[in-house]
Amino acid sequence: MLEGAMVDKVRVAAVQFSVTDDEAENLTTCLRMIDQAAAHEPMLMVLPEFVNRACLVRDFDKGYAQAISLDGPFLESISGKAIEHQCHIVINCTVRRANNTVSDTNILIGPDGKQLATSDKQVLIGAENEYIAKGTELCPIIQTSIGRIGMLSCMDGVLPETARGVALRGAQIICNTLNSFALDESTLHIPVRASENKVFVVAANKVGPLLPPEVTRDVAQTFGRNPSDFDGAGESQIVAPDGTILARAPFDEEGVAVADIDIALADKKIRPDGTDIYAARRPEIYGPIAVRSSTTSRSSALNKIEVAVYQTDKNAEDPIQEAVQSITDAAAQGIHLVVLPELFYLLEGITDDPIEAVKAGDCATKVLQEGLLGTETYAVTTVVADGHNGSYQHCAVLVGADGVVLRQRQMHPCARHPWATDLGDEIVTADMFWGRLALVAGGDVIFPEAYRLATLKDAHVVASPTALLERWEVETGLIERAAENRIAVVAATRPNNTCTSVIAASTIEFSSFDKPFRRFLNYPEVTVADVEPGLTKAVVYPIAASNRSMSPNTNVLENRPISLLGPMLRSNKEKQ
């Protein structure tokens, strides 16, 4: 493992500004904004993506001519500023490569002016595929005096794999360079990568026109929008490992977001229940994520169905009967699926007596079955089950009028259920009349890998009976699982002061350029239950999983960087 920083507190800055189609003008802007940021005395500053030229070039020769060289005057001038201000600078440009290709490249420059590392964008979007070559090597993790730094670019952060690979190899700070008009970058895709990996993220986006004027005009006319709708969405930010946004720049003005960070926090991977999120990973079961697939949700699906989450009342005299009554009411309203919290039938949802919990779980599922007789509604919760050789399982169960029709063992160890040692090794699914259902049980909900595995099984909807513990799980985590996989996520928890249940449903319209144009890159419809116990309903769209193409040549599932997923598959004991 790489060593830590030489300092405890690190001041970092995310710098945002507008870029034109004039390289000389852009260099002047970069130097001016670096000077502006330097007034705050940061040790690290991150600039946006494509700072040498406005993006979207459909002609390779033009794109190649507009790219810069790594040893040219543009970066030499940036290096001079790094020396002048004695700080690390991350900058992104299109770069001419020796093999007659163009890369979208992040460059980390040290306080001595030297280029410490480069990394090429792994996931391209839309027209970028026409003139930019995808990265073929992992971003290096750079040991510096201020900590371990990794880099990624824009679309890299909309999928989970790139940031995961950077974090797993020891990065404490992920620098994200962006060139995006999407309003959901700052509210979802940027902060979730910090909290799910428990690292700091410093993300710099643009403001002003992202495209050359003639392209902006044509695109705006096509969609009947104002040209400003295609401006950079700004809101460059610095995010802590718990998902807290420490600083954020304006939406539509150039500016600098600055924060002091405690770098050691990025080495603490422990959840409130004591689970180590990295030690609990099971790379041996993630193999399908690194295999090229052509899944398109081949199983049939309805346009929409009604689902619900049920939150238990901690003061209920008979929690099982109250839950059954709510589920019966839901069935009468035509709701197809109701998800309850994990172990809803146990006080506080925990046990230190798995033998008795097995018996109580059998009783609970029988009562649920009886309550569902004569309906087409199904309920999902978890139970304690007997495992192999005297062990125990924590299982999600799908219960209908015919009893338990699907069991899914929790796949990752979880400190709040230490008795659950017989773990599942794969996702299993059930084909319902409305589409394919998968279950992600209990503590598995914090692992993006679990939902990827469900998606690779062609799931349209994932039901997650769980116990949510951290605010980010509701604010970004489960929403992102729906977005990055194009599925519906129905997650139920016992309500508390931090978390409540959530339903996140990817919609039928998806592409950024679908009509009506929404200025969202990839954001589902979200229903969050209030803190009161009871039933919360929502509509979800199983058929949405059949469309995973964000734009031409960009698919949220098929464009994961297969050849660079080695870090996700390495044993936790191996040196990353």
What does the model show?
There is one protein chain. With 576 residues, the chain is an alpha/beta fold. It folds into 2 domains: 10-268, Carbon-nitrogen hydrolase (Nitrilase/N-carbamoyl-D-aminoacid amidohydrolase, 4-Layer Sandwich); 299-566, Carbon-nitrogen hydrolase (Nitrilase/N-carbamoyl-D-aminoacid amidohydrolase, 4-Layer Sandwich). It is built from 11 helices and 28 strands. It has helices spanning 23-38, 60-66, 73-85, 160-168, 184-197, 213-223, 319-332, 354-372, 448-456, 471-485, 566-569, and strands at 9-16, 44-46, 88-96, 102-109, 115-120, 142-144, 147-153, 173-177, 200-204, 207-209, 231-233, 237-239, 245-248, 255-262, 305-311, 337-339, 378-386, 392-400, 403-409, 429-432, 435-439, 461-465, 488-492, 502-505, 525-528, 534-540, 549-551, 554-555. It starts with 8 loop residues before the first strand and ends in a 7-residue tail after the last helix. The mean pLDDT is 93.
Can you tell me the overall shape?
globular
- Strand arrangement, major sheet: 5-4-3-2-1-14
How many domains comprise the coordinates?
A: 2
Output the CATH class name of the largest domain.
Answer: Alpha Beta
Number of separate helices: 11
Oligomer: single chain
Spell out the key features of this protein.
28 strands, 2 domains, 6-stranded mixed beta sheet, Nitrilase/N-carbamoyl-D-aminoacid amidohydrolase, 576 residues, 11 helices, alpha/beta
